[in-house]
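User: Teach me something about this protein's shape.
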Amino acid sequence: MRIERELMRGAGPVAILKLLSHREMYGYELVETLASKTEGVLAMGQSTVYPLLYNLESKGLVQSERRRAENGRERKYYGLTGAGELRLKAEVEQWQAVNDAMQSLGVIRGMETFVGAFA
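Assistant: First, the predicted structure itself:
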C-alpha cells in the first residue's frame, strides 16, 4: 500500500526521527530500514530521504558526521539532537491524538502496528 503524498509529508519526518532515536544511521540505511520495518508502506527513495534529512538538519533536529563504515567506505551518518528528541516526542503525541480521534470515529483500530514497527 502506498500512502498519499500529503499524509507521507507528515509521516516521513516523524519516521526518520524515530529511527534515529535508536541509533545513528546513514541515508541509504534509512531508506532500507523504512521499507523493511513498515513492509513498504512508508518506503521512500533516496531522492525523498536526503532532502528530508537536509531539512531536519537545517532545523537543528538532526546532526551529521562523516566517518568510515565497517566496510571501509566513508558515509555521512545522521543522529538525533536534543531538539530532535523533543520534536519527536511532540510529534508522537500529535499522531497519538489523531489516532485516538480516528478510533473514536471507528475509522481505525489502533496504532500499535505503527509504533511497534519502530520499537
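Now, about its shape. The chain is about 60% helix and 15% strand. The domain at 5-117 is CATH 1.10.10.10 (Arc Repressor Mutant, subunit A). If you'd like, I can walk through any region in more detail.
User: That's plenty for now, thanks!
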